[in-house]
Design goal:
Length: 603
Amino acid sequence: MEPDRREERQEGEGEPGVQEGDVREGLKITMVPPCRLIVRATAGARCIGKRGESIKAIRATSGVNVKVLQDELPEEMKRRQECIILASCGEEANLRTAVSMILDRVWDRSGLPESAQRSGQERPFTLDLIVPERAGGGIVGTGGENVRAIIEELGCEVQVSREPLAGIAAQKRVRLLARERGPVEAALWRLQATLAELAQNEVLRPEHFELREAVLDEQEAAVAEARERGLALPGKGEVPLRVLLAQGEAATVVGKLGANVARLRDITMVSIDDAEAPPFDPAERVCSMSRAILPDRLRALRLVLGDIATRNEAIAREEGRVSDMDAPIAEGSRHVAIRLLLPGDRWSELDSLFQDGQPLRETGAMVRVQEHGWTDAGVPALLRAVELEGEEEQVALAAWRLHQALEPWELPDPPPRFAPPTRDEDEERKGKGEGKGKGKGGGGGGGGFSPEMGLGADRVGAPIDDRTRPVQGGGGFPPKAEVVQQATFQAAEASSQHGAVDSTQHVPNGHSSRDMGQTSSSNPTFLMVVPDDASAMYLASDKSGVARRAGVQLEARRRAAGASSGNLSLLEISGSSTSIATACYLLQVQLWMHSAMAAGPGC
């Protein structure tokens, strides 16, 4: 190894592949974070194409590892008919090409009937990006400044989910939404640049991009087992949580460009349909939340109640019933009234609850059962309304009690409502150093609590706990590659012992692939053990970007004919000590990413 002579160089000369500032401040390796998107299952199928033709074309054109995960995902995501698209490459330019081709297919609205196509073209462009929970503070910025900058400069709405990604540990969803495609793509790369900055400042590491399924604890596992048994009983099963909305309320729940309803769909399947008339008014709508466990449906209901309460406050302010000088009422404590729709054919299961009355009275909400309506055909309507009135959390608790009577396998008490930390709690947390990160924008969330930040802000910097397991194909670490220092005379000796054949195979970037045991130049080299010859060829090529970024020469060394060196495949690294160290790190990252994105046939 040659000695480190950085101090002898002129200021700014630096090492090959290392920027000027890195020499003065210490080596900083720029990581290109993988792009991880959540799309509907139908969009994922378009990205794969018939017999995998589409995804193969994306890989071939861009040189990027692309994989579509669906069957490997947790049940929570499968129920919502979503899939994850992973794209990873050491070169950002190649990654941009691949993501652009992916979005062409995700947003493809051709082939639809004329009326549906016209409606689809009027729909906004939405995109869901997966980011590590640890990155929440850096993405939002101090007081939400980073999010506001994207909204104001690019014209793209940004929603950072308060909740962790369903079924996936230590990850959260960021939704981008605009009327045109351009602002969404620009916002996507702005966020990817933020992730790269956080990685460079050591707030994020490769393992933070690993997709791991959240594993249930003993109590959660027992409830899940009871839930499965209950759902299998005849005449039982999940009861969608349905709320009857007036016309104005329905518009509020949908939100601008569908932003509010999209937020609900982060948690559960949500549809807003016309109410059956009669017995209901034709102008009314039914918001239905289904295909999720009851705690998740309750979370969605709390958001609906919050939207309705916000609308009521705005109306009261316009009518002069509330002054801007009045103290604001905390979320969860505002007055609201809704009509919950329950199945008429299972009403007998609720009789004991209404007759006793005590469990519902304990919620603090006023409960009024409306008469069972009739359809035009003269038969009882399928759904019957129960009016709930009170504070938001009182109404949510009453709805839980009614649904828990229909789904008795659920826990008697609902999960607690998320409460943002008070100013004193936030200052105390910052005083203890919690949530602080490196880099612009607060890194790990040191800029204090922002409403957009939500739950992720309180969990910034939390380690990935043991109650997780890797999602198959979603970023599990391969066995670490071995790095072996090998002097030239040792390689020459191995060559004579194994009778290596002197053959060189061309690699697209001009590097070479040589047989194990074949000698190289007189410079000291490192040999890295990699899983197979294909991995060695990939890492030595332009597609990995390692050689250019680290300023080294890479050669894939194939096993020589007749060699008895076992099943080792080696990658030879030549360069200065600093460059080789940089290359070793980048190669480890690439091996992890390549393993995470490696796809089976046609997927």
